[in-house]
Specification:
Blueprint: H1 2-20, E1 24-31, E2 37-44, E3 47-55, E4 60-65, E5 72-78, E6 84-89, E7 93-99, E8 107-109, H2 112-143, H3 147-174, H4 181-188, H5 194-202, H6 206-209, H7 212-226, E9 237-239, E10 245-247, E11 256-262, H8 267-283, E12 288-294, H9 299-308, E13 314-316, H10 325-329, E14 337-341, E15 347-350, H11 354-365
Helix pairs in contact: 2-3, 3-4, 5-7, 8-11
């Protein structure tokens, strides 16, 4: 009997010690959410992974867990709805207060990292509001065919966009130990080359540099440097729509070859396709060629998009969407994306669209 008592006491002590260790407690008070299930999720490799769940009673729910190794961005999602909000989860007592119909605007307290993010967002607010107002003006000007105003707004918006990017870069530079920094830098990395990204990564505090997201960015920076302007384009082989294997270097040799990453489901890609078709028609006989790499998952949708957009050049894919082998090799994480190669397979430009792509092709092969 004494042995049993000692065992129960040891278990109680162990449980007490664990409950007092690093952990998080999330308390929610969401109006209009009675008997609704809330999911605590994180995004991993493009998929939502559920960490915890709780049913709200008269809008009130609680979640406990941890420890969390690093503060990380998570999503609180009202199950089977589009209502959600995001915040930084860390080992602390976090309170989420708001209404279901405006969950994205819920007030979140108790997370120091979230407070840092809120301060950054507030500093960016004047520019964001100005940008939103410009977008409204742009839509009005376009509806009224005011081309002069449309042009002026685009120029002004580009200036604001530049200011917003600089604000983010300044935050990364001035907050090397903040766990907000990895997420801001991840967004900035979309428009950075490998060397610039590496420069910012090297300035981070050791603890932040060891987070999974920064480790991913370091790997991405290394890949980006191998596909930067002036580098030899890495070769790859994928199947065409008929299942025949085609390598990139079987097409290298023309004056210019455009590796065009796109997908049938990608709206911006489909809007850019007519421009690529126009350039191809004008310069294909002068040495310009295109090698299309699709990030589609369904062959029928891929082929339909090829036919609908009149893409008559070589197309390849492994139908793995974002796991596309060539996209991973070229560090592509947004589309449309492209790389312009000379006749030796050297990358001479990347991510040119619209008139920029036309002018570059004309400069090289149009003479």
């Amino acid at each position: 009997m004494k042995k049993l008592s000692y065992l129960l006491l040891a278990q109680a002590i162990l449980f007490s010690a664990c409950s007092k260790g690093p952990h998080y407690v999330i308390t929610g008070n969401i109006k209009g959410a009675d008997s609704l299930t809330f999911l605590l999720q994180e995004r991993v490799s493009g998929q939502y992974v559920t960490l915890d769940s709780a049913v709200a009673r008269k809008g009130i729910f609680k979640m406990k867990g941890g420890p969390v190794r690093y503060p990380e961005m998570v999503i609180l999602n009202a199950k089977n709805t589009r209502d959600r909000t995001s915040f930084y989860l860390e080992n602390s007592e976090i309170t989420i207060t708001g209404s279901l119909d405006s969950l994205d605007a819920a007030k979140i307290t108790g997370s120091r990292t979230q407070d840092e993010y809120n301060a950054f967002r507030d500093s960016n607010k004047p520019l964001s509001e100005k940008y939103s107002k410009l977008n409204e003006d742009f839509q009005f000007a376009r509806q009224n065919n005011d081309t002069a105003r449309v042009s002026a707004i685009r120029k002004e918006a580009a200036g604001i966009d530049k200011e917003m990017i600089q604000l983010q870069k300044d935050f990364v530079k001035n907050h090397p130990a903040s766990y907000v920094t990895p997420y801001i830098l991840a967004g900035l990395s979309m428009d950075m080359d490998g060397s610039e990204l590496e420069l910012y990564l090297n300035g981070l505090d050791t603890a932040v540099a060891n987070t999974p997201l920064i480790k991913e960015l370091k790997e991405r920076a290394g890949k980006m440097k191998t596909v930067s302007v002036g580098q030899k384009a890495p070769d790859f082989t994928l199947n065409d729509p008929e299942g025949k294997q085609v390598s990139l270097y079987s097409k290298v040799g023309s004056k210019l070859l455009l590796i065009d990453f796109w997908a049938g489901w990608c709206g911006p890609c489909r809007r850019e396709n007519p421009n690529v078709v126009r350039i191809y028609k004008e310069f294909s006989k002068k040495g310009f060629d295109v090698f299309g790499v699709s990030l589609d998952r369904r062959r029928d949708e891929w082929v339909q998009a090829i036919n609908d957009d009149h893409l008559t050049w070589t197309q390849v894919s492994d139908l793995q969407e974002w796991d596309n082998a060539a996209a991973r090799l070229y560090a592509v994480n947004s589309i449309p994306a492209n790389f312009l190669l000379d006749q030796n397979g050297t990358i001479i430009a990347r991510d040119l669209r619209g008139d920029e792509l036309y002018n570059k092709v004309k400069e090289v092969v149009g003479r």
